[in-house]
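Quick question, first post here. What does this chain look like in 3D?
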Amino acid sequence: MLQKLLGVCLSIFLWSYAHAQETYTINGKVLDASTNKVISGATLSVANIYAVSADDGTFSLNGLQQGKHNLKITHLGYATATIPIDLFADKSDFIITLESEDVLLEEVELQSKKVDNSSVVSISASKEFLESNRENSLMQTLSKIPGVSTINIGSGQSKPIIRGLGFNRVSVVQNGVKHEAQQWGSDHGLEIDQYGIEHIEIIKGPASLMYGSDAIAGVVDIKPSAVPSKGFSGDVNLLAESNNDLFGISSGIASRKEHWFFRGRLTYRDYGDYKVPANTINYEGYVFDLYKNHLRNTAGKEANASASFGFISDRIKSETFISNVNAKNGFFANAHGLEVRTSDIDYDSSNRDIDLPYHTVNHFKIVNNTNIFFDTHTLTLDVGYQNNYREEHSEPVPHGYMPTPPNTTERIFNKNTYTLNVKDKLKALGNHLLSTGLQAELQNNNIGGWGFLIPAYERYTLGAFVYDQYEVNPNFHVLGGVRFDYGFMNTDAYYDWYPSTVNNPDGSTSYIYEQRAQNESLHFGNFSGSVGVNYQQEKTSYKFNIGKSFRMPLANELASDGVNYHMYRYEKGNINLDPEESYQFDFEVSHNFKNFSISASPFFNYFSNFIYLNPTSNYYETLQIYEYTQSEVIRYGGEMQVNTTLFDKLDLSASAEYVYSEQTSGPKKGFTIPFSPPLSGLFTARYEIANMLFLQQTTFSANFKVTATQKEIVPPEEITDGYQVLDLAMQAKINAFTNKNPLELRFKLNNVFNTKYFNHTSFYRLIDVPEAGRNISISLTQTF
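> Answer (accepted):
Ran it through. C-alpha cells below.
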C-alpha cells in the first residue's frame, strides 16, 4: 500500500514537473483596426521576450512559461496596446488590432520640436508628476518645480509666481486660450480644476512673442489632453485630508467611436477651516486668539463640471471644451479689517461654516480648438468665450462718510472675455519652420456692490507675430521672431452712492457725491521680439535666448481709487502709467550621464518701467494710501537641478532657485520688489519596490525643503525667517477589482514635524499668519 501511494505521488510530481517545464508559443498577426491591413515592424513583448511582426504582419513569441501575462504591442503611429493572456490552454493564435494615431503625428511632431529645439527655458509637467505631487490647488502642485512658487490665499486658492513675478505678469493658458479672471487681486485665486490635466508646459521668462502682453514673466500652458483611444474608459478619484477635514471626489469618463470622441468630468470638494501651528496672531497691534489652532473662516467648497466633444480624421482635428468652476471660500476673518472685534458672528461655533467675509466665484468657459492639416503646414484656430462672475461679501459697517451699507455685497465683478487665435505653421521653406499668428481679445468687466476699488472697463487687444525656427543641422537650431500688439482701454465714470462733506473756501459746507473714476480712453502699442539658439551635443544641450517683452497696464493700476479691506489700505491708480517693458537674457545648459544629470539656467532681467503699488506717507480716513508708480528694476538669478539613480531603484534629486531684485530708481530705490521669493532648495529621495505584501509598484518618497531668511524686502513687508519642512509620501497599486486596472493608492504626510513657518509670498504673511500645520492626505484612484 505504501509503495502504491509513493508511486502515485511520484507520478504526480513527475507530471507536474514536466508541465512546469513546458513552454508555450504565441503566434498571431497584427492588423490596422480601421483598414484591416497588416502592420509590419510592430514590437511585441511579454515576460522579457520580444518579437517584431513580419512583412505579412505575423509574429511568433517562443519560450513562454505557463500562467498569466500581459502582451504589449507598440508601433509608431499607433496607440500602444496591452492585452492580458492566460497561457494554460492550447489557444496560441491571436489577431491583434491597433488603433491608428497617424492623424496626430504631425501635431505631435511640431509640439516636440517646439519643446526640444526651443531656445526658451521651459519644463514639462507630465500627468504622472501632477498626480504624484497633487496639492490643494493646481498652482501649489506646480510649486515643486524649480523657479515656480505661489501666492497662497487660504488652503484652496493660489496663483503662480515664476522667478519672483506673478499676478498678470504670468499668463495661464488652458486649451489654447488665456484664462481670464480677476487675477490682478492679491486675494483672488485661479478657477481651474486640476483633475483630468495630462500635460502642462511652463515657460520661465518673457514669452510675449507667442502669448501676448501678460506673458512678460512666463507662461503656465495647460495643454489639451490626448485624444482617447477607441472604446469607453474613465476614472474615479477620492481624496481626504486631516488638516482641514477635506473630502473630495472627481470622476471622469472618455469615449471614442471611429472619428468622434467625448470626455466629461465632475469634481466636488468640501473643506473646513485649516489649522496652523500657532495659538495667536498679531495684526495691526491687536492679538487674536485662534480656537484650537483653526484659522477661522477659511472653509470652502467647490463644484466643477467639464465636458468636451471632438472630431478627428486624416485632415482635421477639432474639439470643443465646456467647463464651469464654482467656489465659495471664506476669508480669514481677522484679515478683513478690524471689524471682527465687534462682530456678532460666532466664528468658532463650527469649523465648516462659511461666515462673513467670504466670496463666491463662478467661471464659465467654452473653447474650440481646430487643427487643419495640409501637406506642408498646419492651421490652428482657437475661439473662446469666458464669463467670470465674482461676489465679495463682508459685514455692512459704516466707514468715514459712508453710512451703513444696505446689504453684505461689498463688490461684484462680472467679466466677459472673447478670444480669437489664428496660427499657421509652415514646413515647406527648406530647413525653416515658420509660424505666423494673429491674436485678438475683447474684455468687458462690469462692477457692482457698495464698495468701490476699480471701475468698469472695456479692453481690446490685437497682436500679430511671425516666428522662424531654422535648422542649421539636426543638432543646431536658430530661432527668432517679432510681434506687434495694439490695445486700448475704456474706463467708465463712477460716483460714490453716498454724499461726502466738503468744506468750501467761504466757510460753507457742501455735500457731494465724489467721483472715483472718469471716462477715459487709453491706447497702447508696443513691439516684442526674441532671438536664440539651441545646440544639442551627444550628452549636453545648450539654450541661449535674448528678448524683449511688454505688458499693458491693468484697470486697477490705472484707475483704482478705493479701500481694499482685504489688505486694510487705500489704493490709488495712476492714469499716466506706461506699458511695462522687459529685456531678458536666458541661458540653460544640461548634461546627462548614464545615471546622473545636471542642469543650470541663469537669467538676467531689466525692467525700464516696472509697475508696483507703493505705500505713501498719506492717509485717507486712518487708512494708509498706496499709489501705483513705476521704476527701473534689475533682476537676476536662476535654477539648478541635479538628479541621480542608485541601485536602479533609488532616485535622488536636489534643486535650488534664487532671485535677486532691486529698484534702481523711484521712491523705493535700493529696495527689492514685493513678493520676492527667498533662496530655497528642495531635496527629494524616491525609492521603488516592485511588490510588498498586497501592494504593487510601491514607491516611497521624501521631500525636504530648505528656505533661507528673506532679508531683501520692500516696506511694509517684514523680514521672513528661513525654515525647513519635511514631506513624506507613498504610492502603490492594489489589485482590488481587476488586474488590468488596479486601484491606485497615494498617501502623503506634509509638514511632518508640524513646523511653524512663514511663506514670504503668502497673502496672509503680512498679518503674521503661518503656513498650514501637519496634514495627512489619502487619495484613491480607480480607472476603468
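Helices lie at 2-21, 105-117, 127-132, 138-142, 208-211, 555-559.
Residues 2-21 form the longest helix (20 residues).
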